[in-house]
Amino acid sequence: MNRKTFISLFCLLGSFVGALAQDYTATLDALIQQYYPHADHPGISLQVMHTAKPERLYQRTVGLAELVKQEKILPQSNFRLASVSKQFTAYAIYLLQQEGKLSFTDPLAKYFPTLKGKARKVQILDLLNHTSGLKDYEDEIPIQQTEQLSDADVLRLIQPYSEAYAKQKYFKYSNTAYCLLSLIVEQCSQQSYAAFMHNRVFQALGMPHTQVKEANAVISSRAYGYHLSGGEFVFADQSITSATKGDGGVYSSAKDYGVWAAHIIQSYMQKEAYYQYLQQGSKVSPVITYALGWFMMKDQQGRTCLIHSGESTGFHNIVCIQPETGLIISLFSNRDDQQISPFFEGVLAALDIQPQGMEGKDLFQWLSAAYAHQIKQQQQ
To answer: What UniProt keywords apply to this chain's record, in alphabetical order (predicted)?
Structure first.
């Protein structure tokens, strides 16, 4: 092939890729218009980016971060990530393990001597990968409870119980586990969980506006949560369980999350220790595993997808990372309606991503079922 022919083909390929990008943008714009047409409602922040390119491939926001003041959602708006926070808690534990301040094989009795029976023998890795079998703290909240729970309250609620998995360990999603992990971070670092996350994770990676919500803390550019009731959105930003930290207390924006996801991709592709632990996850289904705050699955072309969603009062979120391609998708919403499920299916279709093993469900629906223990358990 001569130089002139090569240049012509290269230019043709560039035009083709450019056309695909335009089609991709138009499709996502149309999806947003279909599912989130109202600029005066709570809304979304959708970002699609690629680590191989410094610029964002796609960034759109629609709707209001706060209804009374009519503040618009922006790329830097901070949403409560809910269970998307778990990947950050797991990373904090990973850092401490790398520094020799803890071991994934440490039993919980080392950190929580008041635990009983089988619960004492549960290991840190079981907490990370949801194979502990510990009691769900949500089931033990007193009916008369009005004050928000802390992670320390979670320990208090579950410590009378000894139920846990022994030799045969199965995936059982557990918010309890990640609340205990935040307490372990505090013991091993001699810092508050929020301080450790700020100093060692968010600040270190260049995520200046990401933070763990603490009492009376001011969150800049905050998106407040809303619930659809009787055809209207009502303020629903907090619940009794909204103050626990390790399982869902991180607030972040699309802009900051892109920085975090790029770091995860780098760790994965360089096959660092973090990558090795991801490969040793618990089996959720025959083709899906869970490790370090991530569901790991393949798409129709065999590409790895790291996925998690977050559901809490006023917020629904979902993220998807494809390390091999460098693709990062984040969708944050300050509304807890079910629009996010079919909308995200449309986003995945536009990007030609079909996660495998969903048992006929939309991805967001399947994840919700996994959290509710409605996915058939697989022996480890």
So the answer is: Hydrolase, Signal
